[in-house]
């Protein structure tokens, strides 16, 4: 990034704003992650900031405070359309007007139809407003919140670790450790960025997982959730009940909870097939403020999520190991023919320690994403009608 004395391009400013926004992952929910960079009238960097936590100052406010009077006549680059409403904080659109900013470039229009648009307020005050620069990159960084607004449910990332032949454990059920220490540390990063970590009864019974974040400085612990249909998998003394992070046990409406006094936070949900109704589970989590879910297992629960069309992203850690037998990563997902397969598009492949991390999204979601803007491309003026609820 350029120093204050150097002129900064539109592209560099928005890239910096996107990088700043990512610093808020895991700590702003149920609000979006947002970054802002302000250049003075001569194109010099004078202020920057990001949304750090729900209820705290927005990215634009942090950046304006840093810029002071140098923001007058300058340009603000924001990853999401500036808000235009008063909630726990004031409207950023009006703060930008009062600071004398002459131009605002934002990457992604707010999808919330219930609020008025900050872009319209800025234009009405004589501010030049442009939208679309690096929209695809900004969308990716804010995908959990955007999914929650557009679909009314949390964004779901399914993570699994497997051998090259797709086994998550050996035939004798041993699974520690298939992947490297580096890959396991990377999983804790995913946990730190999620509002909730979800596993099924099979994983709870076999692995007694802890599910809390370790080794990530300043991490906000996610809600630990077990889909325990019959209320029999989470036993007294289970690691998930240690108080290290909040815990929720989801059980069937007719599950027998007698003698289950150790389950202090329980939600009852309708049954679907042999398990719980997945849309109902996601709705219950959404009501608790959860906007992003990390689905960690096991294969039966993952199959239920896939069958329900509730997987938005897949992150697979593949180890250079062959087993030839043992459980597969995905159980029955209601797919009986190749024509009905859930097709994915790989968006990233990265070497993590000795393993390979593959990230993929359903093709339908990939096709709906905005096209990336080439580096150095100019912003495109468009109208905007909505604002975010931060």
Summarize this structure briefly.
The protein is an alpha/beta fold.
Structure characterization notes:
The chain has eleven helices and 16 strands. With 390 residues, the chain is α/β, with parallel strands linked by helices. The strands form three sheets. The protein has a nine-stranded mixed beta sheet, sandwiched between helices. β4, α4 (118-124) and β5 form a beta-alpha-beta unit. Residues 370-390 have low confidence and may be disordered.
The biggest beta sheet is recorded as: 9 strands, mixed
- The dominant shape is elongated
What is the helix/strand order? HEEHEHEHEHHEHEHEEEEEHEHEEEH
- Name the strands of the widest sheet in spatial order: 10-9-8-7-13-6-14-16-15
Structural class determined from secondary elements: alpha/beta
By DSSP, the count of extended strands is: 16
Proportion in helices = 10-25%
The overall average pLDDT, rounded, is: 89
Discrete helix count: 11
Radius of gyration: 23 Å
Termini gap: 27 Å
Per DSSP, what share of the residues sits in E-state strands of 2 or more residues?
15-25%
Uncertain stretches of 5 or more adjacent residues: 370-390
Jot down its keywords.
single chain; about 400 residues; alpha/beta; nine-stranded mixed beta sheet; five-stranded mixed beta sheet; about 25% strand; elongated; disordered C terminus
Layout of secondary structure:
Layout: H1 10-21, E1 35-39, E2 45-50, H2 59-67, E3 75-80, H3 92-98, E4 103-108, H4 118-124, E5 128-131, H5 135-141, H6 143-151, E6 155-163, H7 181-193, E7 196-200, H8 201-207, E8 223-227, E9 247-252, E10 266-269, E11 271-272, E12 275-276, H9 278-287, E13 292-297, H10 299-307, E14 313-319, E15 344-352, E16 355-362, H11 363-368
Parallel strand pairs: 3-4, 4-5, 6-13, 6-14, 7-8, 7-13, 8-9, 9-10
Antiparallel strand pairs: 1-2, 1-3, 11-12, 14-16, 15-16
